[in-house]
Amino acid sequence: MTFFKKGTDRDVFVTALANPETKRDLGVEAKAMLFDVLYVDDDSLQHLPFKDRDDILRTLVPKGLKHIEVVKTVTRDKEKFFEDLKAKQGEGVVLKDEDSPYRQGVRSPEWKKLKHWKSDEAIVVGYTQGKGARASTFGALILAQKDPKTGKLRYIGKASGLKEAETRSILKKMNGLKVQKSSLAEVPPDANAKAWVQPKIVVEVKYYERTPYGLLRFPDFLRERMDKKPSECTFKAE
C-alpha cells in the first residue's frame, strides 16, 4: 500500500502505525499499486516475458478505480521521464528487461532500481548487532545530527551498506570510542544499539528524503568524512 498527497501522484512516507487522524491531517490517500501479475486462476505466468505479463495485468484491472492503480510503464523518452520524476521528488524507477521472467526471491540484473537520492553528513553515535556474515562486526551505524536550536544530538536513522573493508575500518575506530551511555538527547525505542560510541566519527550517507520529524528514509553509507567535524553535521527537518 502506498500513500499519496491527495490529488497528486507524489508518494509520501507514512508509517503503517499512524492513526487515521494523522493520515487525514497530512492530506494523504492510500492506493494499492500493482506492478506485476504472477497467476491467472491456477495458471502461472511467471515464465512469460515481462512485457506480456504487463499487457495481461492491464487487461485485468479496470481503469478509473479509486484506490487501485497499475504502475506506469515507460518505454520511450525514459531519461526525460526520470528527470520529471526527480523534479516531483519521486522516489525512483525500476529498470526492467522486457523479456525477463519473474524470478521469486532472486536479485537479477534484469531488474535494477534507480533512485533519486540526496546526501548529507551525519555523526556515528553507536551501532547495532550484526547478523549472519556481519555477526562478528556490526549491522548498522546509528546516526545523529546536532540540533542548532538546542545544541543536542538528534537521532536521524541507521545506515548500512558498508563494504567489508569499510566495516572493519570503522569498527576498529568505534571500539576505541565505546561509552556506556548514549550521547543522544532522546534514544528512540527502535535504536537496538549493541554499543554506544563517542560522537566523533562523521560519515556521508545517501537517502531519499526526510520525514516530517527529520528521520532519513532509506539511508545508505557512502563514505567516511575525515575532512568534516561533528559540529558541522547540522540537523534540519524537511
Description:
- The protein has 4 helices and 14 strands.
- It is α+β, with helices and mostly antiparallel strands and 238 residues long.
- The chain folds into 2 domains: 35-115, D-amino Acid Aminotransferase, Chain A, domain 1, CATH 3.30.470.30; 118-232, OB fold (Dihydrolipoamide Acetyltransferase, E2P) (Beta Barrel).
- Strands 9, 10, 11, 12, 13 and 14 form a 6-stranded antiparallel beta sheet that branches. It has a 4-stranded mixed beta sheet with strand order 2-1-3-6. Strands 4-5 form a two-stranded antiparallel sheet.
- A hairpin with a 5-residue loop joins strand 1 (2-5) and strand 2.
- It is elongated.
- The two termini are 23 Å apart.
- The model is unreliable at 13-18 (pLDDT under 50).
Protein traits:
OB fold (Dihydrolipoamide Acetyltransferase, E2P); 32% strand; 238 residues; 2 domains; 14 strands; 4 helices; 4-stranded mixed β-sheet; 6-stranded antiparallel β-sheet; D-amino Acid Aminotransferase, Chain A, domain 1; alpha+beta
Q: Which range does the strand content fall in?
A: 25-35%
Largest sheet composition: 6 strands, antiparallel
Indicate the CATH architecture of the largest domain. Beta Barrel
Helix content: 10-25%
Supply the number of structural domains: 2
Radius of gyration: 21 Å
Give the overall average pLDDT.
Answer: 87
The CATH topology of the largest domain is OB fold (Dihydrolipoamide Acetyltransferase, E2P)
Q: What letter string, H or E per element, gives the SSE order? A: EEHEEEHEHEEEEEHEEE
CATH superfamily of the largest domain: Nucleic acid-binding proteins
Low-confidence stretches: 13-18
